[in-house]
Amino acid sequence: MLVDCCQRGSRPNMEFAGNVKTDSTGTSEDNPSRLLFALSSKIERLVTRNEECIELLPTTGTNGLYEGTHAPDISISKYLQRIHRYTQCSLSCFVTGFVFIDQLIHRQPDFPLVRINVHRLLLTSIMVATKFLDDVHFNNAFYAKVGGISVLELNYLEVDFLFRLKFRLHVTSMTYQGYCSHLERELLSMRGDKIEKPLPCCHVFPDEATQPEP
Half-sphere exposure of 128 toward its Cβ, with a 13 Å CA cutoff? Predict the structure, then answer.
């Protein structure tokens, strides 16, 4: 089963403030702060943990493509908000992008998520997820402008990212739901409150509903 959580037939619009967006399940996306807060919190903790033990992590010096000379001034939270604000990609792309990053760093332990590479990884993974999920999306030049890097650099990042994942972009509904649940627990641990509404979930294609999980 594949994840199909995108907005079908949507049209990019820079001036969307105040507009209520709905994903394929009917879940309101007018307030994306909950998901972005959970995601940024989780990534911040991963980055902090990795940097505390960076000397113990193996490295081959092959990740320079994603590394800047210094960490960007913008926080992870603000960076995710910026991407969402200007690209209008569906919230499912943020979850799926996180799945891609998690798969990458588990397959390649020499690729720790740290402050000098996390922004480029987030931008690349979300853009790749958008192209895979959303019917309508902006091109690389626009994403590069939003992300604060050159389009040539983003082109190289995209190709490298896809090869590192071996072009395996399919995410099962079970995997997607698992990551959503994980982010919901992140909200609970950070806020200590009850989740009033679940994060956006995926839509299973009708002809896949009866197929067994591969």
Answer: 30
Distance CA 99, CA 105 (A): 10
| CATH code for the domain of 81 | 1.10.472.10
Query: Is 71 within the bounds of a domain?
Result: yes
> CA 111: distance to chain centroid?
17
Residue 111, classed as helix, strand or coil, is coil
Look at the chain and report how many structural domains it folds into: 1
* 117 belongs to a structural domain: yes
Which residues lie below 8 Å from residue 44, measured CB to CB, with a gap of 6+? 76, 77
Supply 193's token pair.
């409150």
Residue 5 · residue 92 · CB < 8 Å? yes
Residue 208 counted as domain residue: no
pTM greater than the 0.70 cutoff: yes
Domain hosting residue 72, numbered range: 33-52+65-202
pLDDT, tens digit only, all 214 positions of the chain:
223 333 333 333 322 222 323 343 333 344 578 899 999 999 999 998 888 876 654 444 445 778 777 788 899 999 999 999 999 999 999 999 999 999 998 888 778 888 999 999 999 999 999 999 998 899 999 999 999 999 999 999 999 999 999 999 999 999 999 999 988 888 887 765 444 444 444 433 333 443 344 4
